[in-house]
Fold each of these.
Amino acid sequence: MISDPYQVLGVPPTASDQEIAKAYRKLARKYHPDLHPGDEEAAKKMSEINAAYEQIKNMRKSQNSMENEKFLQIWNPIKAEASLTIRRIKEIRTHRFRKCPNCHTMLRLPRKTGKHTVKCPCCSHKFKVRVWF
């Protein structure tokens, strides 16, 4: 593990991912073993550059995953509540509710399709409904 991988690539720690990749490619072209066959110094420098670049990528990847975990901890309860609200809206839009013809209380219909007899909890009035969806 390299003590300061940013110094090896010649970029500041505040550099963006694009700047880091650009510096890595520049140094890789400069010290690539195909351009310097038999040069141990260039091979050693190239392996150091590769290690530094991998270390920076791994550090940033773990940092991003921690940020994503924090985001998901905040977002998941909001998402769950939003999906429940959307489901309620869809039920109202798809006529999953009917008014009792006697007392006009809103009643929830059964989920199965077909003809059903529904009893109003307020006035105990029974009436037939047809669920077609």
Amino acid sequence: MNKYFIARNGQKLGPYSVDELRQQNLTANDMVWAKGMSDWTQARHVPELTGLFPAQASTPPPHQAPPQNGPQYSSPAPKGPKLVGLLVMSIMGIIGSLFQIGFGIAYLSSDGRSYWSYENDCWYQESQLDTAYQVGGTVALIFGIFLLVMSIMGIVAFSKRARMAR
């Protein structure tokens, strides 16, 4: 059985047997040395002494929550003017998108250019669907739908942030 020295408060104490170390209130962080050891070591790393620290030896490591999928942001929820601004911009976007969709539908449903023609002693109106009206109406309609979707997403973000701010 080894005899151990303890280093405490800059002093070398000992040698002590394992039973005597128990009476010295040895802690797991105390530095110990015995014949045959290359250097001073914390008592918890000496196999013969680990039985002196049952509380420390049986304590499991701290629990760590598993990582969440995707990035996690810890920015605080905006309050006051920023939150109201998000709501106002979202409502304006919805109104603007409805106008844009209306213009797109109007362009697509129009006859294009109409003009009067005189033939066989009779005036009559002719219409010609212009490709520019078709393209313009389609683009206006797609942009209006996109703007509507983005505005609805803004309203959803507003409601989530408003709940976080409470």
